[in-house]
From TrEMBL:
Source organism per UniProt: Rhodopseudomonas palustris (strain BisB18)
Upper lineage: Bacteria, Pseudomonadati, Pseudomonadota, Alphaproteobacteria, Hyphomicrobiales
Domain Amidohydrolase-related: 42-304
SUPFAM superfamilies in the record: Metallo-dependent hydrolases
UniProt GO MF annotations: hydrolase activity
Coiled-coil regions listed in the entry: none
Keywords of this entry: Hydrolase
PANTHER family xref list: BARREL METAL-DEPENDENT HYDROLASE, PUTATIVE (AFU_ORTHOLOGUE AFUA_1G16240)-RELATED
Gene3D superfamilies: Metal-dependent hydrolases (3.20.20.140)
Protein name: Amidohydrolase 2
Amino acid sequence: MLAGCLGILPSLSLGRSSAAEVVRASAGTDGPVAKAPHGATDCHFHTYDRRYPAAGGASLLPADALPDDYRGLQRRLGTSRGVIVQPSTYGTDNSLQLASMEALGRDRFRMVAVVAEDVPNAELKRLDGLGVRGVRFNLSLPGPLTVSSLKVLAPRLAALGWHCQINMTPKQMEDEQALLSELPGQLVFDHFGQIPQPAGTGSQSYAIIRRLLDRGNTWVKLSGAYLRSIDGAPGYADSGRIAAAFVAAAPQRIVWGSDWPHPTKSNDAKPDDAVLFDRLADWAGSPEMFSRILVDNPAVLYGFPPLS
C-alpha cells in the first residue's frame, strides 16, 4: 500500500512528512508519508473529559482525550483545521466540545452538535454564532434523537445553512430510504455510511447512498475506516474500495475524519492515525483529489474562511 501512496503522490520523499510523536489514543509514533496540504482538515474527532458528566445510559465512556492531546495528533499528521463532533457520551450537553473548540481556536475549528428535537430557535442561533455547522443524528445508539427527529429538525437546520450528519445502521438505512430522499438541506453520512462488509459496494446501503449522492445534496465522510473493515490494518482494502467508489461518484462532496480518539476501540487496540492518513492518500487517487478532500471540500461544507 505504501508503494501505491508514493505512486500517486510523486512529490513525497521516502522520509516521513512530520516528526514522530506519541499521541494519546493513537497507535504508532511516526508521522504519515503523505504530506498534508496547507489547510488540511480533520472533519471528525471528539474530546472526552471526566470532569464533564456523561449522559444517563451512555454506553461509550472513553478515557480522557483533551484538546492538548489533539494538538499532538495535528502535529503528527500535519493538519491545521478540524471539526469537533459531539459524541454520544454527553447527550445534548455540548459544553465540553464547545470549550474544546474554543481552546483549539474558533478561527480554525468548527463543530457538529447534538440538540433536542424541540431545541429553541434562540439556542440554534447561539450555537451558530459559536461555530456549529450541523447536528449529528447518531441513530445507531440509543440517544436523544431518533429517525423521526430527522423529519422534524432537517428543515430548521437547512434554514440555518447547517447539515444533518447521520450515523445509522444498514438496516435503518434500508428501512428509511424514502425519508432520506425527501429531507431538505445537506446530508452527511459519516463512517463511510456504515456500508457493511463483505457486501461493500454490492450492498443495498451503498446503492441508497449512491442515489442520494446523485441528488446533489449528500456528502460522505471517510472516517473510521476500521469500523466495518474485515481486511483490517494496515491496508483496510475493503474500506478502500468503498472510498474509491464514493470519490469517483462525488469528488466534490467527500471529506475525511480521523475519528480520534477512536472511542469504540479499547486502549490496547487503537489504530495508527498516520497509517489511516496514508490510506486516504491511496484512495484519493491523485494529489489533486487528496487536497480537494482535505482542504477544498471541508471549506465548502463547514464555511472555513479562505486560506491565508
